[in-house]
Amino acid sequence: MNKGEERRSKLLDILRQAGADPVPGFKLAEELQTSRQAIVHDIALLRSAGEPIVATSRGYMLATALAPGMQKIEVVVRHRPEDTPKELYSLVDVGVRIVDVAVLHPIYGELRGRLELDSRADVEEFLEKVSSCKAHLLSELTDGLHMHTLAARDRKYLDEALRVLEKLGFLVKEDSQDETELETLAEARSR
Question: 3-state secondary structure string, 28-86?
């Protein structure tokens, strides 16, 4: 085994041990005594070899880390960008993980970004990163209409998340104009 293969093997071990906790690239670089650029290169090689590594706003993790015992739902929501903190904090406060965010873009189809937000601290870190990078939210591409995959160990937390989103006026219900818009985008995507 050459040095690069050995480093990639150790990188996978670190991600397996971290479980559902994303590991920042700089921490991987420190632990493996290499550069951040080498980590990016190693991640690309591991992905091309079929390893289910995902990048989140908080670091790298194995996509399989969430699966055991977790229930998932996908919700469709719409709100203004300035309501994003209220949405994210409300969801983690009821005990759900915000796995990702997705939009159906009329040109590019589905665009999805991993979030892996479990706590207020995670949300704070995500919002700070958005602010400091002057980044735009995916939902801004679709006038606030977007989807989230939510996960929890018990269905009661997912049900509570639905109630909270409905109370905030963010939840898109079936037969609404937003739902019709999503169906139109999905049809355009399948052409």
Answer: HHHHCCCCHHHHHHHHHHHHHCCCCEEEECCEEEEHHHCCCCCEEEEEEEECCHHHHHH
Cα dist from 36 to 3, 16, 44, 52, 127, whole Å: 16, 19, 13, 20, 23
Q: Which two tokens stand for residue 12?
A: 């996978």
Instruction: At 117, give phi and psi (nearest 5°).
Output: -100, 125
Query: Per residue in 105-115, pLDDT tens?
Result: 888 888 988 88
Check: CB of residue 91 under 8 Å from CB of residue 161: yes
Alpha carbon separation from 61 to 8, 30, 56, 151, 164 (Å, rounded):
14, 17, 8, 16, 29
For residue range 114-139, what is the model confidence (pLDDT) as tens digits? 888 989 999 999 999 999 999 999 99
* Length of the chain counted residue by residue: 191
Question: Which residues in the chain come in under a pLDDT of 50?
Answer: 185-186, 188-191
Please give the helix or strand (H or E) that residue 145 lies within, else none: strand 145-152
Q: What are the tokens at 88?
A: 């994210």
